[in-house]
Design a protein that fits this description.
The protein has 283 residues and is of the alpha/beta class. It is built from 10 helices and 9 strands.
């Protein structure tokens, strides 16, 4: 049976590829974007199978209305893809309050509004799959990405909690953690060139130069292949809570987790002291 998708950030990048992959196999899609003009060709090609919805995820009322319209139009919702987001680039000291709030409003709160709007329908159906686009940046952190990392790390914790809350209703949750994908002119986007840039403090110019020498240089994944992987994921009877899309960051993630475990172990004596216990008893 065909599925009904609700995909945010559908006009370009991975979101656009997700929509195309779903439609190409006969599924139906409510595709949201701040500007739906870029979806006109999909409407022309697929007709009523695609419902374009002009929507900014930071507008809570618009999100709830968009989800309601999608459910009313298609009769059900099966796959919710929280894809909309962007990267704010800047050292923590450089961030303005507005920049940090805007980053969280889009990446975190926008995703929450979509989930809250869709969940009553999914619970009633006792079926559905929520896909949250996170990032390798939701697991590790790098300089100049503090705001973006804050939003993605928050999404990771939020969706892990969500997964345990909704499992009894037959609703599945998967956090997708992509690496770099060729979403701009066939190239891996350089976050220092394509992200939202904060004001620059000369104190961090050296750091920017060092990161600029490597940013966006790693091999770029194929967005169309990522879309086919997502289709396979939503067809799975037992999908994972987390899954990487791309292997480029895998060695770095392995090292990050190994380092965390080692640090906790190295400081176990102090951890025990903080609780008034003897560390040796816990080893």
């Amino acid at each position: 049976m065909s599925k009904v998708w609700f995909v945010t950030g559908s006009s370009r990048g991975l979101g656009r590829n997700f929509v195309e992959a779903a439609l190409s196999r006969g599924d139906k899609v409510a595709a949201t974007a701040r500007n739906t003009g870029g979806l006109a060709d999909l409407v022309a090609a697929h007709g009523e199978a695609v419902l374009p919805l002009q929507m900014d995820v930071t507008d809570k009322a618009a999100v709830f209305e968009g989800v309601r319209r999608a459910k009313e139009h298609f009769g059900r919702l099966d796959v919710i893809v929280n894809n909309a987001g962007y990267a704010q680039i800047g050292a923590v000291e450089e961030l303005t309050e507005r920049e940090l709030r805007d980053q969280l409003e889009t990446n975190l709160f926008g995703a929450v509004w979509v989930v809250q709007a869709a969940l009553p329908y999914l619970r009633e159906q006792r079926a559905g799959h929520i896909i949250q686009l996170s990032s390798a940046a939701g697991v590790i952190a790098m300089p100049l990405g503090g705001a973006y990392h804050a939003s993605k790390w928050a999404l990771e914790g939020l969706n892990e909690a969500l997964a345990s809350e909704v499992a009894e209703f037959g609703v599945k949750v998967t956090i997708v953690e992509p690496g770099g994908f060729a979403t701009r002119d066939g190239k891996n986007p350089d976050p220092l060139a394509n992200g939202h840039m904060s004001r620059t403090d000369p104190a961090y110019d050296g750091l920017r130069r060092r990161l600029g020498a490597v940013a966006g240089k790693q091999p770029a994944g194929d967005p169309a292949a990522a879309a086919q992987a997502l289709v396979k994921l939503v067809d799975s009877d037992d999908p994972p809570l987390r899954v990487l899309f791309g292997l480029g960051f895998y060695p770095m993630l392995q090292q990050a987790y190994a380092d965390r475990l080692k640090t906790w172990a190295d400081w176990l004596d102090l951890s025990a002291e903080a609780q008034g216990e003897v560390a040796q008893a816990t080893r």
